[in-house]
Design a protein that fits this description.
Blueprint lengths: L3 H8 L8 H17 L15 H17 L4 H13 L3 H14 L4 H13 L3 H14 L4 H14 L2 H14 L4 H14 L2 H14 L4 H10 L1
InterPro entries: TPR-like_helical_dom_sf (IPR011990), TPR_rpt (IPR019734), Ycf3/AcsC/BcsC/TPR_MFPF (IPR051685)
Keywords: Membrane, Repeat, TPR repeat, Transmembrane, Transmembrane helix
Protein name: TPR repeat-containing protein
């Protein structure tokens, strides 16, 4: 049985508003399929925290890469992300902009722009950048997941569930997506739905610290 077809059925409900119940139904259905297959996905979306010395070494490395190959967009994105780790958001955005000037279809550059704008709380700019990344890479789950995170931060929970559901369709069984559906549910006031999602995230990744802490918080 495919995990995609049932999810598509839930995406077009009789009501226009996408509800948390529908999101939970979709991810639980996907969870059943993937658990039966023994396929577990861990929390591997965000980069590991790096100490300052390591970040500075990384910065020097990518600065040298950019100097040697200034017209390679990937080098610009890697350098920009390193500036992001240093919380130098202006320099990060500068590198991402150069990357899209070099290659207007480079989805990762727009995604990273969205990431920086989110941390700057420039949510409209973040959504504009993420809209471009999702259009260029419609099968990449992280673009929709980040869009869902931004909508959650804005308090727009219906939009958040829609984006996170799309992320789940692109990567069923992702502990990260399940966790962020839980975050959206918790912030919207649905504690029971949030706990259900945190438990599902832990089913896929028992060592998912954020999900465990969130679940403990709701007990």
């Amino acid at each position: 049985m495919s995990s995609v077809a049932p999810a598509q059925g839930f995406q077009q409900p009789s009501e226009k508003t996408f509800t948390l119940f529908q999101a939970i139904a979709i991810v639980l259905l996907a969870a059943t399929v993937f658990i039966a297959a023994g396929f577990l996905i861990g929390k591997n979306f965000f980069w590991n925290n790096l100490d300052q010395d390591r970040i500075n070494q990384q910065l020097a490395y990518f600065e040298a890469k950019v100097e040697a190959e200034p017209r390679v967009p990937e080098n610009r994105v890697n350098l920009g992300y390193t500036y992001y780790l240093k919380k130098d958001y202006d320099m990060a955005l500068k590198q991402f902009q150069i990357a899209v000037n070099l290659d207007p279809k480079y989805a990762d550059a727009y995604y990273n722009m969205g990431l920086v704008y989110k941390d700057m709380k420039r949510y409209d700019d973040a959504l504009e950048a993420l809209a471009k990344s999702t259009k260029l890479a419609p099968l990449d789950y992280k673009n929709f997941m980040m869009m869902g995170i931004v909508y959650t931060d804005m308090g727009k929970y219906d939009e958040a569930f829609k984006a996170l559901n799309k992320a789940n369709q692109n990567r069923p069984g992702s502990a990260d997506v399940l966790y962020y559906i839980g975050v959206a549910a918790e912030k919207s006031g649905d504690k029971e739905g949030a706990a259900s999602m945190y438990k599902e995230a832990l089913n896929y990744d028992p060592n998912f610290k954020d999900a465990q802490e969130a679940l403990n918080r709701l007990k």
